[in-house]
Amino acid sequence: MDSQEIGKHPVVQKLKSWDGQSVADVIEFRGETTVIVPAAQILRVCQFLATESSLRFTFLSDLTPVDRFPLEPRFELNYHLLSIENKQRVRLRVKLPGKDPAIPSVTPVWPTANWHEREAFDLFGIRFPGHPDLTRILMPDEWEGYPLRKDYPTEGIR
Amino acid sequence: MSLPFLIFAICAILAVAGAILLIAAKEPIHSALALILVMISLAVLYLLLGAPFIAAVQIIVYAGAIMVLFVFVIMLLNMGVEERTNFSKLAKYAGVPLGVLLLFAIAHFLAHSSAGTAIANGAAGTASSSTRDLSTQLFQQYLFPFEATSILILVAVLGALVLARKE
Amino acid sequence: MPEPYTLSHATIETAAGPAEPMVLNMGPQHPSTHGVLRVILELDGEIVLKAKPVIGYLHTGIEKSCESKTYSQCITLTDRIDYLAPLSNNLGFCLAAEKLIGIDVPKRAQYIRVLLTELTRVSSHLVWLGTHAIDLGAMSVFLYCFREREEIMKIYEYVSGQRMMTSYFRIGGLALEPPPGWLDKVKRVIDAMPGHIDEYEDLLTENRIWIGRTKGIGMLSAENAIAIGASGPLLRASGVAYDVRKAFPYSSYDEFDFNVQTANGCDCYARYQVRVAEMRESLKIIRQAMDRIPAQGPFRAELPGIIPPSREEMKTSIEGLIYHFKIFTEGFAPPAGEVYQAIESPRGELGVFMASDGSPRPYRVKFRTPSFINLQSLPMLCEGRLIADVVACIGTTDIVLGEVDR
Amino acid sequence: MNLSVVPVSYYLVLSAVLFGLGVIAFVFKRNIITIFMSIELMLNAVNLAFVAFARAHNHLDGLVFVFFVIVVAAAEAAVGLAIVIMLAQNRQSLNVERVNLLKF
Amino acid sequence: MEFISQHPVLVASIVKIAVLLFIVMTALAYLTWMERKLIAHIQSRWGPYYVGAHGLLQPLADGLKFLFKEDVTPPVADRLVYTLAPFLALTLGLTAIALIPFGPPSIPFPFLRGQEAFSVADVSIGLLFVFAITSIGVYGVALAGWSSNSKYPLMGGLRSSAQMISYEVSLTMSVVGVVLLAGTFNFNEIISGQQGYYLHFIPRWHVVPQIVGFLCYLTAAIAETNRIPFDLPEAETELVAGFHTEYSSFKFAMFFMAEYANMITVSCLATILFFGGWLSPFPERWAWQLFLPGAGLILLGIYCAYDTLAEMRGIARIQLSVVTLLCLVGGAICLYPPVAAVIQGPFWFTTKILIILFFYIWLRGTLPRFRYDQLMSFGWKLLLPVSLANLVVTAAYFVFGWVKHG
Fold first, then answer.
1. ipTM score for this prediction
2. Of A94, A107, C345, D74, which one has the fewest beta carbons inside 10 Å?
């Protein structure tokens, strides 16, 4: 897909005109737009997308990491945003290093991110500075390791 | 031994035992239960004395309302076992013997007073007539005190409300 | 020795501090937490000061299991996520996989899918209504609802051979040709349903106690609902007309005529109204779907190497046999990439995020389950209210613990 | 002694014993609620005496008094227990030794 | 022997207590059967069915099960009070029934010399004593809640104490109107005061002038016995089971028996106070009513016979035929005029109680549960004022001489 077509999504255009630094890359796949955002920028970008009057991505559908284990940066964090008014979806993606992955929490923007981020912390070990209560959510509190990481052993006795 | 005496004896023993239990119990709720025991035995004694209305009121108001309130408060506060703190030596060594002495003095006096010789059981006016007479007395001779107590109760209810209300 | 008491401002203030709140552990074994939900309540008398849901007691690691199974094998796991609406979950997963691969499902299969998922919605709402009612003490409604749900289960069984873990939807279409006469059974059920719904409404809608227990309870304003990420009836009862079926139509929902049911009460009663109205609306969709389903036609897309060939083809042609063998041994490999497919499950937006690295097994599957997110709103709903309202609030969020914990 | 009838004096002695036990409880107990209960015990003892006297003199005034005593006790319990609750909330204790603000 | 001849009243009382206890215990057991059956039919299911024909042996099986179950006492419980509470509840529940007259005060029994009353004790202020006993009935529940030393039971106990105290006031107030009409606290006198007919066929029962009082009484009585919609102390879905959460085995059963005993007591009271107790609803000149009980039993027997032949199989057929035989023989005996005359009173009394109990159960099948604060405000802000107003109006009736006393 050529770069002309990729930039056409209104979110991408808006973001670019707002701050060129905020968009590192754009991917189109099966009609879904993924905007890759630098990790340092994520809170700003989210704030902008949620409050910008023509976009109004007030609803965070989902937040989920993907572990690309041997690769580096190891983690991809996907934010699925939804604008109820404009019936629009967009995916933001942040790449995080394998060593001590941490990214500012987006709970100030969307309170719903609370449990999403706890789940990501619980299962992937990604930390979210600024999160009000970053504790394990699905696994027991004393659990060791992060089960959804690709290098987590799936068999044998721990 | 006649039936009334038997009933009296049982109830008297139960009442005294309840009173002692009230003192001995560490848990406030056990004390409350002991007091209820006392009250119910007293109610039976009132029946024996030919005052069924008072007996019923004793159970309804005392055992059924006041003591329920006590139990309720004990449960609500759930303060647990009573703590024994420093106890006044004066009360321990002088008060108790004096109290017991006083008690015996009163008992002795009562047992030998002229009033005590009257017979407490046997045929008196029937129970229903006593209830009717009581109400007549209440609403004629003692009408003013009766109304006054109703105001007292109203005041008490208001007072309790004011105390219980949160600022 | 007791401390000496001095009459100063500071001592009065510390002495007059509030009594310590009582901490009550509601669940994980409690009749009205609808499973193994645990809520830690801080109480002042009967008033809830703080409510903290604790979850994870039913965590089965479905997302992790998916990573080691082929795409088709994962479908059976999705039934176990929301065991009250298995077909919705099947649909969400299949749609995501189809999007990833790029399959067009034949219209007949799409309509049947719509019909069955709407039936699922009715059945799930029936369970909700029944359990919510019994939580608030209305016992008969519970049994009535389960009586009707039973009829829907019979349809599941007739169509797929299973009452609960149906796994009837497959990537590219359906598992089997639906048995003959199944539409008559569906018709019989949905013809009786409106009367039954009236029956529940007779018992509840204008019942003073029911209104007293639900109206003004569990308030969730539209702003809060969006902020907390609530979806489905929870969101629509706050007046936000967001329904994935309308906003992002899938499986030919755009061809059907139905309304998004909303209410403005923002309380438990509004959610009750919305869900009851949704049941009626679903019946409407089912009727339309019954008229549209063609009697003949493929029930599965044809895509060699990805969609299993028909039985006949497998037995007669060598390619068919090879494809069949390959699909069922090593699976099929969609292109690398990620998709997010949302559907409107009975509880709200069920999103399936699927990442493929080009291998026959999904690299990562994430189920964005509505119960998980909706449950977050529980403290918002019930703090400052009475314990009895906690029960109403848990009921009204319509959580399924299998879905919360996955 | 003829045991087929019960003389009023027996009731009076019982009443005195109960009253005395009430006094002892009042002195010994440290918990406000139990102290309160010992007051009730004393009231009950007095009531018994009243009823016995009413019986002895075949006069109903004693019963009327008992009636009033019970009513007043009810009022007293309502207010008293409200105070106890306030006290418990403010002091976290029901021990009279810790609630001696009015002691000079 | 000498003692017996010296105290005939005492002996008669003891015999009566034994008979009454037996009858009441059986009635309690079969009340559970009736409740389960009725509720089941309201909810379109069968209810107990397998133990005995129509589940008639179910109460027996339940009793046996409770007897042989492990009796668990929580280690932190206050043993004395924990054991005392169920006994207290059951004893008080049963004691109140002793004061109820099930038939006319003096009736010539056909096979006995002399006349006997259909009650254990005919107390001049029976009504007050029943209230006295019910007023201390709260201890069973409250102490059970406290002594379990667990949070849910404690809250159940607290709720019930508050609820019972509150509704006791309305309960008493709603009855005072009847006491004014009757001018007595004695049950037999209250009942005989209701003899006669308006317009020669409407019975002159107190329910006609005291309809408001009756409705208040019924509501308060349901609250007093902790039944739906006022079953907050044991609200299963909120407090797990309230005050008896920690109880097991026969202690648990005792609470249930106490609850049913209380139901019977308040139904008896309602019958006596408002529905003319053992009086027949039909004018005395209708002589055929004498044979109504016998005819009813025979009809029941015929139905059972039909059922035995048409429906039952195996051992159930034998069981039901025993019931049939009992019904038919009993019916035949009841048709014998002297016997018929004797059982007139108990027959009507029981019939009226059963109707009220049916109403109880019907409510349970229909209504949701109140919330605690709603219950309290309902009791204090609606029920109490209405019953007070009723009392004032009734008193005004007398003061202004609209009604002649007696």
1. 0.78
2. D74
